[in-house]
Design goal:
Helix content is 0%, strand content 52%. It is an all-beta fold. The strands form two sheets. Strands 2, 4, 5, 6, 9, 10 and 11 form a seven-stranded mixed beta sheet that branches. It has a four-stranded antiparallel beta sheet with strand order 1-3-8-7, with no helix packed on it. β4 (31-39) and β5 (46-52) form a beta hairpin.
Amino acid sequence: QVQLVESGGGLVQPGGSLRLSCAASKNMFSFVFMGWYRQVPGKQRDLVARINSDGSTNYAESVKGRFTISRDSGKNTIYLQMNTLKPEDTAVYYCNALERWSTSNSWGQGTQVTVSS
């Protein structure tokens, strides 16, 4: 099974920036895609951003123009650069990956992002 380890969460003021990292225990090319989801209490876990094996990306409409997902294949790591953060971005952010030939997703432990007013 693949291990996904997130880091980079914390407390930031509105308008500030954070960069999240997700280190995978396998080569980047083991995955159909890797991405970031977020979840707040009482709500569904929602897609934030995803990077596919061909390098194409998908973003939630609410973060377009503010967040950027990228990868460093040499480090088996993906990143989420979050700029112009808003209070509504407060959530636990989870790294996600789908291995080739797998029937289920893999998840990291989550990292808390808090944007205070």
